[in-house]
Amino acid sequence: MTFLLSRSFLSLTLKPSRSSISMANLTTNAKARLRGVVFDMDGTLTVPVIDFAAMYRTVLGEDEYKRIKAESPTGIDILHYIESWSPDKQQKAYEIIADYEQQGIDKLQIMPGVVELCGFLDSKKIKRGLITRNVKKAIDIFHQRFEVLFSPALGREFRPYKPNPDPLLHICSAWDIQPNEVMMVGDSLKDDIACGKGAGAFTCLLDETGRYGPDDFSVSGLHPDFKVDSLSKIQNILETNFDLIP
After folding, report:
1. What InterPro entries does the annotation carry (predicted)?
2. How far apart are CA 105 and CA 100, in angstroms?
């Protein structure tokens, strides 16, 4: 199922300082130019296998996990939360996170539709990049194992990481492309969509299981421009709504 979220198109205008265009233009005959697509990795380019809830419980403890989850309905930003901890406590937390991430690497599977979508982007000479809160090692293994390359590809070693828009702005700068000529695709409202919105890019939320609904968008204040339940739906979105001009 694919949704065009008209609320965003009616209300959101990209930042004037970046050659702004109204996203409402997509509902007219004039199509916006799209020159690049940036993807999240875990849960977007790869099948979700990391048990994030278990990771958070192990890092935080059950009581603290429940408290933070109740205060953060859109999700827990574990990396941001542990930044205020002492160095020793941080180190232990990062070791736990690294262990869960290694389990994810051991079970790494490419998401259905990735190869086909990348082939389509290549045929149109549309650039593709990657931003993840995982580590560079995981990116390298993904590239080596599946031979589908993204460049630039930024891990959490790039600071500040998502949801800060700086990684996406960095990629736009490296490409010499305006943010309003780029789409951010990911499965996290609080990380990927927030990053894209903050940069002034178009956004597409991958929601395979129907995890997100209108209440989530209202509570977070984040309204993705598109929502799909499969990567295979994105090609049609791109062809229908954009001029794909490299």
Report:
1. HAD-like_sf, HAD-SF_hydro_IA, HAD_sf
2. 9
